[in-house]
Design a protein that fits this description.
By secondary structure, the chain is an alpha/beta fold. The protein contains 16 helices and eleven strands. Helix 1 packs antiparallel against helix 8, helix 3 runs antiparallel to helix 9 and helix 14 crosses helix 16.
Length: about 450
């Protein structure tokens, strides 16, 4: 059966993980719905060395996990009631990881499409528990994912501050990310992910569509890369605010950033220790910090000011890109502007964005959502409503900001409804003790503050 014969993707009954293979730096991940055409995704690892004999089992385990995690991009097209894994059932810890990832990582997708995936997702289980993964003696160096925004650059500079050996890595072909990675001065690694063309055909035929936990997919890609190239740590730059839900819907927490949160980090980190390599650490270097603490640290990194951008319109697969790195209209632009404002001289901030977003009355709705005022937090990677309110309150107490339209409105309309005792900036600048940062990298935290 060809894919163009699957007229109604939403009516498919089985999502199938068919096989995976690797040769000459290219991993192929193969899926299908029912008896339909194969969907083949390819991941390209540049200048890939031969897999050392001592790491073959670890590489195979990491590649299998990548196959299972990356399948979320295709599963959501039909959300069929059955999941089939061709090479057999999974052990409980693997099935638990995937059940959680597909349920919580697709929670926003389900919410927006009016679906309830609770009780619907069940990876086949029953395989024997895997032997504990060995210590492989991986080289003491770190893969640091670069996203083009402030957070990953703070992580890079923190690792550089302790003389740590690291490589800036990204998945995809964004020129903006490439420019940021080049500015770090680190060695770079650019991995390519090619989605199966059949997915776009399924979309044309009426597939379900929406947000997927892409950080989980990238994490699995980097686990393969760590074994292939030889790294003992993968250090993302996910802050503690990523663990906070966007909203609650019918008893379920819906978090746009679930795969950036601490729960997923802990599950994947434990899985890698148990199934791939006991000395492969997966963590977020910024986990102890709020968004405001991270923006305070970034405010000192002036060499990146003309290069970075957190505006998500730069990174969409389709559609126009901003002409000057910041669209000035999206939740990410709003939040980064607001979060940086307490820590940068006002002229410097306006020079970065090319405009004053807080002196534009048409932007009121976007900032209200950040403050969780008459709306829920946006479905974007932004900080908590409470820290946005703390940042806005701080500006409302400074003469250089008080006359700007949205700060003035905050003072007159929103602030009287809030408890000023809950709006202090300082508590947001204190790091948490909850993290999984390996001992080798913990001295880097001193550079963040």
């Amino acid at each position: 059966m060809r894919v163009n014969e699957v007229i109604q993707p939403r009516l498919t009954q089985v999502f199938r993980f068919l096989r995976t293979s690797y040769a000459d730096g290219v991993a192929e991940l193969v899926y299908a719905f029912d008896g339909g055409e194969e969907l083949i995704e390819r991941i390209r690892f540049p200048h890939a060395p031969a897999v050392p004999a001592t790491r073959v089992a670890a590489f195979d385990a990491a590649l299998r996990l990548l196959h299972l995690i990356a399948g979320v991009s295709y599963y959501k097209a039909g959300v069929p009631p059955k999941i089939d894994v061709a090479d057999g059932p999974l052990d409980d810890s693997t099935a638990d990881l995937l059940d959680a990832l597909y349920l919580h990582g697709l929670a926003e997708f389900a919410y927006r499409n009016g679906l309830d995936l609770r009780g619907h997702i069940a990876f086949p289980r029953g395989a024997a528990t895997q032997p504990v993964a060995p210590v492989l003696g991986l080289p003491q160096r770190t893969l640091v994912p670069i996203g083009g925004g402030k957070d990953s650059l703070v992580a890079v500079e923190a690792i550089k501050s302790i003389g740590g050996e690291a490589t800036a890595v990204w998945v995809g072909n964004s020129p903006l990310i490439a420019a940021c990675a080049g500015r770090t001065g680190l060695p770079t690694l650019n991995i390519q992910r090619e989605l199966a063309p059949g997915l776009f055909e399924l979309n044309r035929l009426g597939a379900w569509n929406g947000h997927i936990p892409v950080t989980a997919v990238n994490s699995a890609i980097l686990a393969v890369a760590a074994i292939l190239y030889g790294y003992d740590s993968i250090a993302f730059a996910n802050e503690r605010s990523a663990s906070a839900a966007t909203l609650e819907y019918e008893g379920q927490q819906v978090n746009h950033q679930w795969s950036k949160g601490y729960a997923f980090e802990a599950m994947l980190g434990d899985w890698l220790h148990g199934h791939v390599a006991a000395d492969l650490d997966y963590c977020s270097l910024l986990r102890p910090y709020s968004e405001l603490a991270i923006t305070r640290a970034f405010a000192k990194l002036t060499p990146y000011f003309d290069t970075f951008s957190s505006c998500n319109r730069n990174f969409k697969l389709l559609g126009p890109k901003p002409a000057d790195r910041w669209c000035g209209q999206c939740p990410k632009c709003h939040f980064v502007f607001l979060a940086l404002a307490p820590f940068l001289p006002k002229p410097r901030l306006l020079a970065i964005f090319g405009r004053n977003l807080l002196d534009d009355e048409t932007q009121a709705g976007g900032f209200d959502a950040l403050l969780e005022y008459q709306d829920h937090k946006p479905f974007e990677c932004v900080g908590e409503g409470a820290e946005a309110r703390a940042a806005m309150y701080t500006l409302s107490q400074r003469s250089e900001w008080q006359e700007d339209a949205l700060v003035s409105r905050f003072r007159s309309e929103i602030l009287p409804q809030l408890d000023a005792a809950q709006l202090a900036l300082e508590p947001w600048l204190t790091p948490s003790s909850e993290h999984r940062i390996p001992t080798r990298l913990q001295p880097a935290l001193a550079a963040i503050g």
